[in-house]
Amino acid sequence: MTAPADLPKMTYRFLGRSGLQVSAISLGGWLTYGGYTENEKTFSCMKAAYDSGVNFFDCAEGYAGGKSEEVMGEAIRKYSWKRNDLVISTKLYWGNANGDNPVNNNGLSRKHIIEGMSASLKRLGLDYVDLIYAHRPDRHTPMEETVRAFNHLINTGHALYWGTSEWNADEIATAWRFADKLGLIGPVMEQPAYNLLQREKVEKEYAHLYREVGLGLTVFSPLRQGILSGKYRDGVPADSRFAQEQDAFIAGYWKRTGKYAWDGIIKQVNQLQPIADDLGIKMSQLALAWVLKNPNVSSAIIGATSPEQVYENVGAVGAVDKLTPEIMDKIDEILGNKPPAIVARFD
Amino acid sequence: MTAPADLPKMTYRFLGRSGLQVSAISLGGWLTYGGYTENEKTFSCMKAAYDSGVNFFDCAEGYAGGKSEEVMGEAIRKYSWKRNDLVISTKLYWGNANGDNPVNNNGLSRKHIIEGMSASLKRLGLDYVDLIYAHRPDRHTPMEETVRAFNHLINTGHALYWGTSEWNADEIATAWRFADKLGLIGPVMEQPAYNLLQREKVEKEYAHLYREVGLGLTVFSPLRQGILSGKYRDGVPADSRFAQEQDAFIAGYWKRTGKYAWDGIIKQVNQLQPIADDLGIKMSQLALAWVLKNPNVSSAIIGATSPEQVYENVGAVGAVDKLTPEIMDKIDEILGNKPPAIVARFD
Amino acid sequence: MTAPADLPKMTYRFLGRSGLQVSAISLGGWLTYGGYTENEKTFSCMKAAYDSGVNFFDCAEGYAGGKSEEVMGEAIRKYSWKRNDLVISTKLYWGNANGDNPVNNNGLSRKHIIEGMSASLKRLGLDYVDLIYAHRPDRHTPMEETVRAFNHLINTGHALYWGTSEWNADEIATAWRFADKLGLIGPVMEQPAYNLLQREKVEKEYAHLYREVGLGLTVFSPLRQGILSGKYRDGVPADSRFAQEQDAFIAGYWKRTGKYAWDGIIKQVNQLQPIADDLGIKMSQLALAWVLKNPNVSSAIIGATSPEQVYENVGAVGAVDKLTPEIMDKIDEILGNKPPAIVARFD
Amino acid sequence: MTAPADLPKMTYRFLGRSGLQVSAISLGGWLTYGGYTENEKTFSCMKAAYDSGVNFFDCAEGYAGGKSEEVMGEAIRKYSWKRNDLVISTKLYWGNANGDNPVNNNGLSRKHIIEGMSASLKRLGLDYVDLIYAHRPDRHTPMEETVRAFNHLINTGHALYWGTSEWNADEIATAWRFADKLGLIGPVMEQPAYNLLQREKVEKEYAHLYREVGLGLTVFSPLRQGILSGKYRDGVPADSRFAQEQDAFIAGYWKRTGKYAWDGIIKQVNQLQPIADDLGIKMSQLALAWVLKNPNVSSAIIGATSPEQVYENVGAVGAVDKLTPEIMDKIDEILGNKPPAIVARFD
What we know:
The structure is a homotetramer.
Chain A: E1 12-14, E2 21-23, E3 25-28, H1 32-36, H2 39-51, E4 56-58, H3 67-78, E5 87-92, H4 110-124, E6 129-134, H5 143-155, E7 159-164, H6 169-182, E8 189-190, H7 200-205, H8 207-212, E9 216-219, H9 248-257, H10 262-279, H11 283-293, E10 297-302, H12 307-314, H13 325-335
Parallel strand pairs in A: 3-4, 3-10, 4-5, 5-6, 6-7, 7-8, 8-9, 9-10
Antiparallel strand pairs in A: 1-2
GO molecular function (chains A, B, C, D): oxidoreductase activity
Domain NADP-dependent oxidoreductase (chains A, B, C, D): 25-334
Family (chains A, B, C, D): Belongs to the shaker potassium channel beta subunit family.
């Protein structure tokens, strides 16, 4: 499938306070590459993304037991893309694929960060990644050890920037505490979930960090696992991830995120549909454009599983400017989940 | 009134990672000294506290427009207590009492911190306080300026330790970031609300800080404005603060904390009563002992308005050991508000 | 004279990245207090300013041989203004008033900074100033010595913030270099001339510093020595400063600033008059409001010599919002002196 | 062509405060190697320079789309010059040759600095360069990121010294601020245009930096694109660069530098001719000797396109001592563009 004629021009944003630019829409490998999707489909998704101007491809050592990195690396070689034109990321924390004993193949110890990076690069077939993330905080490893180890990766040329994923605000601030104290490089980006239904972390908890450390966000789950695409409008379709709940990983994932009032959420999402209709865009494009409206978001990582979905999602880039302050207010009113403004001096 | 014969011996705890010891129960000046309580009553409360072994008396420039500090200082002179035996605190942020123009008499600029300290010491009639708090975060002043200014107070001998009140965890971590970077002293204590009904901040948000910076807590509102004393069990008595809702300050205070399901809370509190009865202690003592059970709490600040209340509250010190793991679990079950444990490496 | 009924409410701005707030309009002592103006007139100007909400009063050890500081201090005592409500500044560099031998009574050596500060405080009758400026760069004293000496003033409580006046951008950056290297406080504000006719330094030379060091500006000469009040429209009036050219100081001052095409400037200023007329404001108010339109300006220092002039100038605060982008463009077109935008990456 | 018998002995100068010595005359690759000049001619120019004692050869990733580096590297191999005897430089900023997407192949992000260096070394066929320049300031990348990335190049052995080209004085000072703060290496040299007609940046703007950071200059355009060779004395010859104005790059270059009074400049240059004649040197030699007379100039980069020109230019080395104070004054008088001396303490 070729790109639709009306595909908007990709925009690029600086990754927080860094000098690196990432495409506003990026493609993620979770649950897909090397996992639920056959390789050929993954390749066609990556090609559609690249052809749309996407330069940032996101992965993790823990995705599909390491297979995700292998397939991603294969695609880069298959299409002979130039390394300089790409922003490749991976994440370290769950490295069971790298050994038989979980003891030192997980977490953020110096040993796992260095060994995990090496194993990831081998799977990717690359000399370095642009971005390396701490996939979760590790409360058993001293922060100083973790900060030093990520700087080791940068100093040895295996990564260019480091960041975090799903860390608490105070943990990011603490990482910078040690970075500053030791004259080292602090984490420049965080990868949280962010979408119309999950706003607290990005809009409230991290609020001071954008100013204090110049934090950039590469957000995942912009469509809330598809809920915001509107596809559950009338129930759960047979081929959706929810229907695959027998799968241990997804089941566990949903268990962790907790139960929520499913019906209420679907109802809210359905109320957003007329707004999308009025703008002449799809529900998923409204959801993505809304995420990109937040200036602290450097990139929204999509998990598209077909070229069509990639193009549809990239279409959201052209819809960002359609979201006027009035429409943003209307969305807030429907959702009722806008975090209160930060208390200032004279509040 | 003299101290009851069975008054337990006061215990002292280190203020976080510092070498300073504060009494487990301390007396606060909010809304009382210089405000809702006549001076003589304040004096007798302070004396009862001192006689019970309380060494820590808490105040703020913003309490009762500065009068709270004046009355507290008067009491110290009246009873000729030795300065060394006391741990005196005050807090800076709302310093309208110090000038006519609010512009530079509020917040945490270097100007207000230095001028506010000077005005507070004058009102207290003291050369220095032991603890100086930033009464709130000031998001308009750079953290570095604030950290430097509190260190200036310490360097000039006007305060011995500095801390925060109602700051976010990431703001405390950021203050330490600048303190470490500049070789300065970081905030050693935080003063949040903490009680059976308000647990999130102390048990979840600050969780990493106890280890990371050795944070100590001097918690206020251990009885949730009297709700946990059981006195609202059958409604709102005429002489309680709730009945004074015509008062603009209280009304405003409750408005800020938001509406909550009053009935549900009273019901929960009433369910705790049998536990107190079984232990042979008062409901307020159960609530205070529960607060002191948390090893991260250095001191619980009570707002007693009569010597009787002081003695009753101090009685809680003797009840801490009665709270067995089984009783603590039972309380958690009744309240259903225990924050989930922090995710560790293999969760 | 009492304040006119339609005097706008004063606005306050943070001084660069600091937590201190200064009034948008401030009163300066150059050539006036203790100099060309009798004391009573100075007092009435200061009172008119204070009554208008002005909180920032600017002075220098070199103004009127130290007399300017004396008269300013006298006014503060005369009106019993509260110290906390005021932002008082002075500047060190030309301290001939402090001794007989110019050798060590000028410049920015540690000796002169410490001795000059002491002499200024004595003349002002104050324990500290809020702002202390290096009145010029001193290319004979190492930057490190100067940075350390100004920090000494802050550490000893004689000043709260330090800054510069008429320094080059690279000198300010170099001061921060030593401040950072030594963990000291850098200069937070600069005092340049800034007005419709002198834009280069503020709009071009300092451009990066607003971001790099959070520089705030307290600008002098917002009316270009009265030229922008329109009073030279038809020639030089007998009572103006230009007519006093026999005076050595003024003559020297004009000599230093160089010759310029007097006629051309007057012509340009006269072209601005219709814009002021259309907005229903005075020419001087247009000029001041234009200065305040620049967000990097924390305060515009006026040199008014009568209460009427003070009120007229304060009136400019209410005119800032009247300067629409269209009007700003029109002004740029008339003057033709807008510095080109800073070259960015893809220019 | 062999070197003329009377060719003066090359002199070598320390590169600013560093311990590296560069030849007073050096050869640059802009617009020539790999571009307007055939390779064989480039080789013969480089050989003539090398034979004249030139040890410093200057290049950039942006010259002729990377071809300039390739041809320069080829020459080094062709003549089997010893690596230790050469000072090789290149510059990073415009790296479009390195990829298809301009987004991360330009500017001074960590990504481009590291990837650009790698691509340049590959084109040059070298393991390291002696000097690596930031070809322009990048106002979108934080200075700290840029300073760290250039240090990374030095730490990994890909470059020995780093510097800047056409940066503002305050940007160089800011780079040193971060270098000092982090204990890193600051930029030791700057590459500006400097010649009889363009003096402001070198003689005024950078004035403090020679002392503050020990800045060395490798100046380009010493003959002002040939204007100072006197070849436009009677108009624009057909084979000159000006005649090639149809070329988009040159046209764009002149557009950026702005229009100037061509006739006036030619007139001034013609007035300098008698001085050259009196000294028995060529006009171009006078211009080059004048540049070298400035002790802050470490090397003047010539853009000769024939061995004859190289020898002629090297001849200027022998003329430096002929420029007496009287002649220097006479030149200043003719040009009228000497920046005023820096204001010192008692000015």
